[in-house]
Amino acid sequence: MSSLVCVGGQWGDEGKGKIIDALSANSDVVVRFQGGNNAGHTLVVGGQKFVLHLIPSGILHAQNRCVIGNGVVIDPEVLLQEIELLKKRGFLKDASQLMLSPHAHVIMPFHKRLDVAREKASGTRKIGTTGRGIGPAYEDKVARRGIRLFEILDRRRITTRLTDGFAHAGVVREEELPGMIDAVYRYGEHLKPYVADTGEFVSDALESGRRVLFEGAQGAMLDVDHGTYPYVTSSNCVAGQACIGSGVGPRHIRNVLMVAKAYTTRVGEGPFPTELHDTAGDELRHKGGEFGATTGRPRRCGWLDLVQLRHAVRIHGATELAITKLDILAGFEKLRVCVGYEIDGQTRRSFPWDEEEVARVKPVYEEHPGFTELPATAKSLRDLPSEAQRYIEMIADQLKVPIGIVSIGPARGQEMILRELF
Ligand code: GDP
Ligand code: IMO
Ligand code: MG
């Protein structure tokens, strides 16, 4: 049995796509198990940039079967655009490379409308969503009135679902319905060749010893149960969700690779203890190109936060760490790392359960010496300046999790794989 769950350790955008691209050179199956096209996973291969929102980041290695599991919410229009774009660029030549779960829920046009309208109306409780309809689609799923992918393959079925007892009559005008039914059915027809029993496929792959990578979207602190609620996404992003969102049992999961940037970023609203509002924050944003891969919004930037990461290690059950964007820290004279939270005069090392307390945190920082440019060809930690080595070792010591990968550039190959991961 050979599987690896790869998940985000912060507020998303940790570089999961790049890490999955690197690992999927040696995998057979790559599975997305939650989220939707709120995700933007960037890969840089042969000088070309690819931003994937729904299709697993293993798609550029032709031997992988890429699965979108039942836990994902699919905007069919976006998925079809992504398929077309990949085909145009010479990938996804064989349709059997992509498989879609019939039980993935469909993001409908009214979900997007609702997402945007609710954000506008939510005053100080604004979340800063991506506006892609993610929350409303998951709401319908849990309310047991969602539309699953296989239902849009059948015109009769989709017509019934959008007319009989239709819950969103308030946001969809009656005269819009025929056009909406036509459009969704057309998308369904195009997606039909990819729909298959993905749960059975992934289980069989695991049973027969094939190498399966599970690709998380978002990150620990955006998890609807364990993150900074209500400033989170509407799915579980923790490693345990890999089972639920793909239809396999927990006995198949042993290794969990948690990806974390060498500093911290967040897009959207919500508390962020180590956020910087000074020139150091601007420097991280500009050097790191910290602008959202999905919405283009500037990402909020701050120092590494070990209190937050310790929480993330626990909720994911991380067995290895991938540290990305170490190169972006080069040139800072001193690096600050948050080792404790001061809240109302008391210092603590655990993440508070009340988001209002998180908003009042004064980070307790430890200073570490900075380092100069990293050699682009570094292949082992020994090739890095000693201060950079010590920074990485400090993270592993503090979190008590070994480092599996260190990434020092956006392009394929600009990473050191330090141990066998799966
Ligand atoms: P994801 O959502 O976790 O896949 O991350 P994103 O793709 O949204 O954001 C990560 C950004 O950092 C992308 O622009 C990547 O190309 C880039 N990136 C990933 N790893 C590294 C790295 O080690 N160094 C640098 N400089 N950029 C990186
Ligand atoms: P990847 O997979 C960073 C954030 C949004 C917002 C909150 C809720 O690329 O790491 P939603 O549209 O999901 O209802 O928005 O979650 N968010 C992300 N931030 N990376 C992501 O995905 C994100 N997906 C959602 O900015 O704050
Ligand atoms: Mg991203």
Structure description:
It is a single chain. The protein has 422 residues and is of the alpha/beta class. Helix content is 28%, strand content 20%. It has twelve helices and 19 strands. It has helices spanning 16-23, 76-88, 109-121, 134-142, 155-161, 177-191, 198-207, 241-244, 279-287, 306-316, 355-359, 386-399, and strands at residues 2-8, 29-32, 41-45, 48-52, 65-68, 73-74, 98-100, 105-106, 211-215, 255-261, 264-266, 300-302, 304-305, 320-324, 334-343, 346-348, 362-369, 403-407, 415-417. The protein has a nine-stranded mixed sheet, with helices on both faces. Strand 3 (41-45) and strand 4 form a beta hairpin. The radius of gyration is 21 Å and the shape is globular. The mean pLDDT is 96. Bound molecules: guanosine-5'-diphosphate, 6-O-phosphoryl inosine monophosphate and magnesium ion (MG). Magnesium ion binds at residues 12-13, 39-41, 293.
Give the integer mean of the pLDDT values. 96
Q: Give the number of helices.
A: 12
Total strand segments? 19
Helices and strands: which structural class?
Answer: alpha/beta
